[in-house]
Write a structure and sequence with these properties.
This protein is mainly alpha-helical. Helix content is 51%, strand content 0%. Among the domains are: 41 residues, Arc Repressor Mutant, subunit A (Orthogonal Bundle), CATH 1.10.10; 38 residues. It is built from seven helices and no strands. Helix 5 crosses helix 6. It is rod-shaped, with a radius of gyration of 28 Å. The termini are far apart. The model has no long low-confidence stretch (mean pLDDT 82).
Length: 130
């Protein structure tokens, strides 16, 4: 997400409008859209300031709060699919949230049907494999 415009720039733009400059001229001068200027003027009208809003973005509502219990849960039900694990979790949780939580604890979901050797020697002659 891009950073908010500085408070100083916002005040300069609004001051130019207050001096009687046309919005289109101020828009070109500061390289801003007219919608941005209109939002700043509306914010000043409602709040008395052109400061950027802060604290409104909180991120995901984290459904997993006890990570030790979740690690134990993953150990117990690790052979299930993420959708099945989501249904088994004590609270209401989506499959995508389960995937994010598993990634948070560095739990890999990759499965192999059979064990493989650690290394493969492709360039070694067959006589040396024996």
């Amino acid at each position: 997400m891009p950073a908010a415009y500085s408070h100083d720039l916002r005040e300069k733009v609004v001051a130019a409008i207050d001096r009687g400059e046309r919005k289109s001229h101020v828009s070109q001068m500061f390289n801003l859209s007219r919608d941005t200027i209109d939002r700043w003027l509306k914010r000043r009208e409602t709040t008395g300031s052109v400061k950027a809003a802060q604290g409104y973005q909180q991120g995901h509502s984290h459904r997993v709060k006890d990570w030790q219990a979740f690690r134990a849960f993953a150990q117990t039900y690790g052979d299930r699919t993420q959708a099945e694990m989501a249904q088994l979790w004590q609270g209401q949780i989506s499959q995508r949230t389960m995937a994010r939580a598993l990634a948070q604890i560095d739990w890999t979901r990759k499965k192999r049907r059979m064990a493989t050797a650690n290394e493969t020697n492709r360039n070694v002659p067959l006589s040396k494999h024996n």
